[in-house]
Amino acid sequence: MRGAILVANRATRAKARFAAGEALSADERHAVQTFDAAMAKLEVLQQGDFEGIFEAMDGLPVVIRLIDPPLHEFLPNLEEQLVKVTRAGDAATEADRELLATIKSMHEQNPMLGLRGCRLGLMIPDFVKIQTRAILNAEIAVKKRGGHPIAKIMIPLVGHVNELAATRALLEKEATAVRQAAGGVEVEYKFGTMIEVPRGALTADEIATQADFFSFGTNDLTQMTFGYSRDDAEGGFLLKYVEDKILPFNPFQTLDDAVAGLMKIAVDKGRSTKPGIELGICGEHGGDPASIAKCEQIGLDYVSCSPYRVPVARLAAAQASLASVEWDK
Predict the structure, then answer these.
(1) How far is CA 327 from CA 267, 288, 303, 321, in A?
(2) Which residues, including other chains, have CB under 8 Å from residue 81's CB and lie 6 or more apart?
(3) How confident is the model at residue 145 (pLDDT cuts 50, 70, 90)?
(4) Do residues 213 and 195 touch, judged by C-beta distance below 8 A?
(5) Distance (Å, whole) CA 157 – CA 180
(6) Torsion over CA of 310, 312, 317 and 320, rounded to 10 degrees?
(7) Residues 6+ apart with CB under 8 A from 189
(8) Could you write out the three-class secondary structure of 220-275?
């Protein structure tokens, strides 16, 4: 992954120039070759992983989120790399200097609100293209072995319908090419999105025109609704807020009513456009009984959570469903 990241921006710019009919320099051609080689290795590794998942989940839908974190998370820490190169002085290797330059070029003041999710896929399309190819080729391989793979490909961090439309068009093109290369083998897949940006929730009727399903990413939706950085808040003032009853509970553990209100708006707007759209939640809230009750009240179809929280989530979902039936009576 690091090899691809180091040349990702240069290679992507070079590919755009080549597609526009411009000639590439030797350095640009080398960047493209290096990038494509690294991505090809990553695609093979991911396809192998997806084949194993589809075989284990035979006949059941598998939701796969496309790349979400900012690229700096796959690289060494900026300060640590800077110290390493500075201390080495003239003896610093060219590789370490190049790595430092790449880390600096990708540094953002607030990376969780920066180039990540669907934005990253639109700026460097190969990252999501190879993931989509890996998913679909894995489905084809498993189907040829007699399996029944079902993929639900989730595009994260959509805040505007045009982001989803552009990404989906890009990936549908890849899907068509994969099927044609496989001799027209048909496999089951859908494209959906994560609703984790407040604007996405408020414009869910528009986003539903381009999505086959929604999954609410409540960790990010909570961060952006409150204006809190989860890592900083939970490591800093949030405990004190709860102790002093400024907040009734930690909103990253139990779903806040205002966040649930945004979700309800998205549910209603999404279903006004596409009545049968499937709606769920992913994140730690999906394992919290109080949050699951709120998900039932606003009309979600499913919750997902960490494996160790599944037994509690199943019980809470059953209780919430029964309570909803009694309330309807």
Answers:
(1) 20, 21, 21, 10
(2) 96, 99, 100, 103
(3) very high
(4) no
(5) 30
(6) -170
(7) 135, 136, 139, 150, 151, 152, 153, 175
(8) HHHHHHHCCCHHHHHCCCHHHHHHCCCCCCCCCCCCCHHHHHHHHHHHHHHHHHCC
* 328 has a pLDDT exceeding 70: no
Confirm if 67 and 128 have CB atoms less than 8 A apart: yes
The structure's pTM equals 0.89
Q: How far apart are CA 3 and CA 265, in angstroms?
A: 42
Q: Give the residues across from 188 on adjacent strands.
A: 150
Using DSSP's 3-state secondary structure scheme, residue 148 falls into coil
What DSSP letter does each residue of 103-145 carry, written as one string?
HHHH--SSGGGSS-THHHHHHSTHHHHHHHHHHHHHHHHHHHT
In tens, the pLDDT along 90-130 reads 888 888 888 888 888 878 888 888 889 999 999 999 999 99
Terminal alpha carbon distance of the chain:
55
Kindly state the average pLDDT of the residues 6-28. 90
- How many angstroms separate the CA atoms of 22 and 20, rounded? 6
One-letter identity of residue 67:
I
Task: Give yes or no for residue 65 having a pLDDT over 80.
Answer: yes
Residue 216 pLDDT > 70: yes
In this prediction, residue 77 has a pLDDT band, given cuts at 50, 70 and 90, of confident
- CA angle 26–29–32, rounded 5-degree value: 150
Share of the chain above pLDDT 70, in %: 98
Tokens of 75: 């690289």
Count Cα neighbours of 87 within 13 Å in the Cβ-side half-sphere.
6
pLDDT digits (tens, 9 = 90+) for 174-196: 999 999 999 888 999 999 999 99
What are the respective helix, strand and coil percentages of the chain, to the nearest 5?
A: 65, 10, 25
